[in-house]
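Q: Structure tokens for this one, please.
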Amino acid sequence: MRTRIGILVAAVSALLGVVVAPGAASAAGRDGTCDSGEFCYYYNSNEAGSVSDFTDSEDDYGATQPTCYEFKGAGAGKGLCVKNNAASVWNRTGKTVRVYFNSNFAGASQDFAAGAKGNLDATLKNNNASHEFLTGGPTGCSTDGTNSKLPSTILVYRVGLGRVDRVDFKTYVKNVLPNEWVSGWPAASLESGAVAVKSYAWYWALHSTRKTAGGQCYDVKDNTDDQVYKPSSAQSSTSSAVDNTWSTRMTRSGNILQAHYCSTTTACGAWVDGNWMSQYGSRDLANAGDSYQTILRHYFRDVTLS
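A: Here is the predicted structure, written as tokens:
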């Protein structure tokens, strides 16, 4: 998938400076008590002070009341936003949980194994902005995805680094979209891009038999041979587009579509009508009021969105 829009993305995004405010805080079971199955922040070190408990990953806690995730338990810190205010954790889930310095699962990080208690390190203490429940996923060259079930991870060949990383699938999509679409474009354009990026990656997670020169299996490269993946590049607007369309599956005859796209209909020599989408075209259709579903059906022939 050779796209040419990536060169423009960084410059245009920097000029636009788009920011999306976090939604209102809500999570089932969040009561300020660290129950079994929850990941809990503490306001003080050594699991002391007020508690903020979570049952799933969260990519942006919010920074102000009344919309932020706050410390809810009794003790020091109660009522304060958890973002950049936590000192220790207790991971009572069955998964490893990764705490990040930045929102959208970006920046420096620290892992806490299932059942672990511990203080945040010097980098992350009072500098916590998101956390992610790691799925682990399959080992070796296999995937746990099917045409009806999303893979939990994808093998990404980091060409410049000469290695293959197994990346959480949703994290991968969130760190591709802002490098392939302009983050300040209309929501429907970004949402159509999110589905296309996900579908392309999903297809290769299911079908790739590629290997590096050293014999390592991989699904996609991190450059324009496939899709441009840059860790810690996620943006609020593009991450929202991914979240809003995460349940959408694009298939043709029951199979996940290998969705190609290019900056315009003439920029890529491999363009085939009905199998490729124009990135700038998606912007123009979104500006005209089309939904992301309409945009996808405009470019991709005989697809089912479910």
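A few notes: The chain has two domains: 6-19+137-305, 39-133. The domain at 39-133 is CATH 2.60.20.10 (Gamma-B Crystallin; domain 1).
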